[in-house]
Write a structure and sequence with these properties.
It is a single chain. This protein has no helices and 11 strands. It starts with a strand and ends with a strand. The protein has 113 residues and is mostly beta strands.
C-alpha cells in the first residue's frame, strides 16, 4: 500500500503560480512512476504530467506544457508540481497517483480571472 497526501492548492489570480506537493508513505516511493491528474467540475479526470521513478523522464499534457513542471525528491518521498502562468481553465482538483493503483485525495486549485 502507498498513502498519498497532496497539499499546496489554493486560490490564485490568473498569471500566478502555485506549487503542489504530494507526500508518500508506505511502500518504497522510488519504485513508482508518479503522476498528476486533475478534474474540473462536470468533467472527466485528465492527465497532467508524469515523472519516472528516477526523475529522469517527464511527460506533460499539451495544455500545460511549458507552464507546469513535475519533479520529485526520492529522499523526501515527495513529488511536486510547479504551476506557472496559471489560467482560469486550470481550475480543478489536482490528484497525484503512484504507479497504476494508488491515488491521493486531491487538493483544490482555483484560478480567478
Amino acid at each position: 500500500q502507498v498513502q498519498l497526501v497532496e497539499s499546496g492548492g489554493g486560490l490564485v489570480q490568473a498569471g500566478g503560480s502555485l506549487r503542489l506537493s504530494c507526500a508518500a508513505s508506505g511502500r518504497t516511493f522510488s519504485n513508482y512512476d508518479m503522476y498528476w491528474y486533475r478534474q474540473a467540475p462536470g468533467k472527466e479526470r485528465e492527465f497532467v504530467a508524469t515523472i519516472n521513478w528516477s526523475g529522469g523522464s517527464t511527460t506533460y499534457a499539451n495544455s500545460v506544457k511549458g507552464r507546469f513542471t513535475i519533479s520529485r525528491d526520492n529522499t523526501k518521498n515527495t513529488v511536486y508540481l510547479q504551476m506557472n502562468s496559471l489560467k482560469p481553465e486550470d481550475t480543478a482538483k489536482y490528484y497525484c497517483k503512484a504507479g497504476f493503483a494508488y491515488w491521493g485525495q486531491g487538493t483544490q486549485v482555483t484560478v480567478s480571472s
